[in-house]
Amino acid sequence: xxxxxxxxxxxxxxxxxxxxxxxxxxxxxxxxxxxxxxxxxxxxxxxxxxxxxxxxxxxxxxxxxxxxxxxxxxxxxxxxxxxxxxxxxxxxxxxxxxxxxxxxxxxxxxxxxxxxxxxxxxxxxxxxxxxxxxxxxxxxxxxxxxxxxxxxxxxxxxxxxxxxxxxxxxxxxxxxxxxxxxxxxxxxxxxxxxxxxxxxxxxxxxxxxxxxxxxxxxxxx
Length: 221
Known about the structure:
221 residues, Farnesyl Diphosphate Synthase, single chain, mainly alpha
């Protein structure tokens, strides 16, 4: 019998109960909607510009799912870029806008990324709290630059990475709630890989994700 670590149970609790999506996605009306087609094209453009690997990998999906995962990527990319906004007032305003958008699926006129993402949220019945958790996870970089324990770091990884996997499940499809644990752990693993890859650059920018407890164990401050 496999015993789950404390951090795994903690993250499963954050994910909450995930009902199997028995309802099929709503009819793909966007194909005949010029404004939505334009919105999805913008999401496709952002994906191609910022992640060639994800762009080509998502190209293997059927058209409807391909467009949806690229809308998800564009949403994540847009929110992540807000953290680099120099104006605190503008930054907070934009984060609040995306929180409201995630809750209500309403958006400003001419916001193509939000239009595509709102359509994807609705059509695939994606739980809104995952989008909110991602926004809060990204915003955490604004207030926290060090982590005391692995459990604390795992919670951060859940917010910025596992939530993406959980939302992707509703687009790609899954057969049972067992997929939740795999999505969470894969997200943590991928984010940990990013942290290890960028540890030098992050340290130069005043941010160190490696847990203090782990560093202290090896005599590193």
